Amino acid sequence: IMNGEEGIEIWNTPMTSDIQVVNSTITDAEIGIYINNYDGYNSAAPDPTHAIIDNANISGGDYGIYILDNVELGTQPVSAEIKGNTDVTTNMINGSGIAVRGDRASAVIDDNLMSISGNDVGILVDAGMATITNNTITMNNTGVRFESTGTGVVNENNIFDNVNFGVENLTGSSIDATLNWWGDVSGPSGE
Questions:
Q1: d(Cα 165, Cα 120) in Å, to the nearest integer?
Q2: Residue 16: per-residue pLDDT
Q3: For the chain, what is the HEC assignment?
Q4: Cβ atoms 98, 145 nearer than 8 A
Q5: Which is nearest to 80 in space by CA: 26, 13, 143?
Q6: What pLDDT, in 10s, does the model give residues 79-101?
Q7: Which residue did the predictor score with more confidence, 117 or 14?
Q8: How far apart are the C-alpha atoms of 41 and 4, rounded to whole Å?
Q9: What pLDDT, in 10s, does the model give residues 59-82?
Q10: Mean pLDDT, to the nearest integer, of 125-149?
Q11: Model pTM?
């Protein structure tokens, strides 16, 4: 899939029959894969929305994968599992490789050793929840950022060569970011 506003949009999928996006390539869409519970429709999704993204290659645009809970109009949770060496590169100005936004949004991001790189923020968790394990998150301005009431864990990842922060926590709450490789045996500071 090339160009356009959204490469793939997923909305209103019952949890009993997950939508799977497997072995896909999406280039230069504003949002590569958009998973949501309301946006752009005349009614809120009556069922939770869940998707599995496996071995996708997403480049260009503003969001590689965007998991959005529309907190004003949506009523159901929205979630995704992103796995299988999914490779996400957007842009270094304002791009988010993977964004999890809204109180009922969540993601399991695991086993992506290709890389989440070349983004302003590799993984953004803004008022949602994310479990981030066994990924390579490198060469972004910020590797992982937690904002608002975002929460989650960041364990057993390769997080290195990000410009500003490997993991940035703006929530005021504790985030478990242990057991990661920071590019240096001494830890994230490299000292």
A1: 11
A2: 66
A3: CECCCEEEEEECCCCCCCEEEECCEEECCCEEEEEECCCCCCCCCCCCEEEEEECCEEECCCEEEEEECCCCCCCCCEEEEEECCCEEECCCCCCEEEEEECCCEEEEEEEEEEEECCCCEEEEEEECEEEEEEEEEECCCEEEEEECCCEEEEECCEEECCCCEEEEECCCCCCECCCCECCCCCCCCCC
A4: no
A5: 13
A6: 999 999 999 999 999 999 999 99
A7: 117
A8: 18
A9: 999 999 999 998 777 678 899 999
A10: 97
A11: 0.93
In sequence order, what are the beta bridge partners of 8? 33
Strand 142-147 relative to strand 151-155: parallel, antiparallel, unpaired?
unpaired
Look at the block and give the residue holding tokens 């069922």.
47
Each residue's pLDDT tens digit, 13-28 = 766 677 899 999 999 9
Question: Quick one: 146 exposed, middle or buried, by C-beta within 10 A (0-12, 13-18, 19+)?
Answer: buried
Average pLDDT, rounded, for the chain = 90
Burial of residue 42 (number of CB atoms within 10 Å: 0-12, 13-18, 19+): exposed
